[in-house]
Design brief:
mainly beta, seven-stranded mixed beta sheet, four-stranded antiparallel beta sheet, 48% strand, globular
Length: 126
């Protein structure tokens, strides 16, 4: 099993920044696993934000490209999501996830991940 612990959510004003962190642990965790971030707003489906391979290749959704940046520290089994220029429409519950090594297309889907964190609320006020 793999456990994911998420931190860094909160309430911020529009235009401000937040950084989310997610630490992965567990016997099933592989060094070449992908890691990713998704979010889910009330009444909407879970949305892909960004994914990153163990080698550092990253992919970002068009909706956050240029504002959000994913990174990871393999030695710490930690993935980060730096969120800048936040907007009220970014308000959602944010989830991190771990998936087996795959192509970019798979990394963009929820099916590409086998373990999920508990989610952290991000609220952006106008």
């Amino acid at each position: 099993q793999v456990q994911l612990e998420v931190s860094g959510g909160g309430v911020v004003q529009s235009g401000h920044s937040l950084r989310l962190s997610c630490v992965a642990s567990g016997r099933s965790l592989r060094s070449n696993d992908n890691m990713g971030w998704f979010r889910q707003a009330p009444g909407k489906e879970r949305e892909f934000l960004a994914g990153i391979t163990s080698g550092g290749t990253s992919d970002h959704a068009d909706s956050v490209e240029g504002r959000f940046t994913i990174s990871r520290n393999n030695a710490k089994n930690t993935v980060y999501l730096q969120m800048d220029s936040l907007k009220p429409e970014d308000t959602a519950v944010y989830y991190c996830a771990v998936g087996r090594r795959s192509n970019v297309a798979t990394m963009r889907t929820t099916a590409g991940y086998y373990a999920w964190g508990q989610g952290t609320q991000v609220t952006v006020s106008s």
